[in-house]
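User: I'm curious whether this sequence folds into something compact or stays loose and floppy. Could you predict its structure so I can see for myself?
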Amino acid sequence: MSTGSRNTWEAWARSVPPLACESTREPCLDPMTTATRLARAGLAGQYVVYEADGGVWHFAAGSDVSVTADTGGITARAAGRTWTSRTDGRPLAAFADALSALRDEDDEGSRGEENAGGRHFYGWAAFELAHLLHADPASAGDRPLLHAMVPSVEVTLGGDSTVVRAVDEAWARKVADLLAEPAAGQSSTRDEPVREGTEGIIAAGSAAYGKAVARTVGDIRAGLLEKAVVSRKVPLPAERHPDFPATYLAGRRANTPARSYLLDLGGYRAAGFSPETVLEVGGDGRVSTQPLAGTRALGADPAENERRRAELLSDPKEIHEHAVSVRLAWDEMAAVCSPGSVVVEEYMAVRPRGSVQHLASRVTGRLRPDTGPWDAFASLFPAITATGVSKRAALQTLARHEDGPRGLYGGAVFRGSTGGALDAALVLRTLIGTGDEAWLRAGAGVTAQSSPEREIEETCEKLRSVAPYLRFSAD
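Assistant: Here's the prediction. I'll summarize afterward.
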């Protein structure tokens, strides 16, 4: 079926089964491990574990209901059927339209009102979506740019309770049985730390990266832009197969992220420990973004950490990099928020994030009545701290100086609801895989004051948030 009419998405939404079965259980002692165990169980073709604010973990699984968009078209699936439409170069708008049809079904009361916030969806946005939103559409490529799953089962693991929602009793029983199993004896992977070769992995490609930084500094000094976040890809050995759930558990225990996620969704596998959110939108229209820029290492020596913290707060390059990021975040928020509602609630605090510490700020506002969460996403994506200033010029610079497309890196993993909430984590500090390939990636903010040596060092500091915790399959 191929049509661009609203009837297309209404027909799709009517084919999406509600989460009709809901039960509440006692809270589990270790929600992170429980969510990871559910992911490892292979309940469905796709799954997501998403750690939200406040130490709440969400597990979602399904394979029947999804929406995927690229530059040319959008495909929605449900109940064994497929609906397609053209996107005419506006995949985010088409994506939002499809998901809004689920909200309309909720409003009509046909979804059973699973919870006050509406039906949830989980997904990702690839970095190359940025070229359509802010720069050169030809650089977006022909790969999927957005993918979302509407789960057949969702488990919320909070401090007070465990809530299971499922499309039918069969799904509910599967999850109940898994929750009742003892946690021990679930892993078939190497659980010991993989220290050997970690520094060799981290150093891969650093010389070429230093040259890319030098070229970017030249562009900045020529007046083409103020800042660009230049990254480098670190492929993992082809003969080794990362165990994503085991890597997630080991890495999350060692990190202090703003959000974390584990997924096998829409062709990507990922285990990540995001240092910041691209945006957080509440059902009441409050929107927030959390730019982090400016970095120093964080280690085991408290005195050395304090010395680096003081250095970070007084370094002109780091302060300038952070200030221009906050300024642009303000401008992007103002484009979708009510006049006078945008404020900087926190400015230049220092936040620990695994193996590094960052300068952090928070900009908040209130969405205008004529805008919604996807309008805010379009304005703020990708995060300034993964692109640069100006965003358009930075994207053009990255297209010139980085090796190949980023894909999921620098994009977003998100959890949203038909009630208007949207929580999107910036994809950094992440093990990423697709097909037989797996890799890490890290970047650094390059300004006129940058040196290749320091930016190489910064990428190594960030890679140490993930590389030491890689786990591999036993076979």
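Summary: Residues 291 and 326 are 7 Å apart (CA to CA). The chain is about 30% helix and 30% strand.
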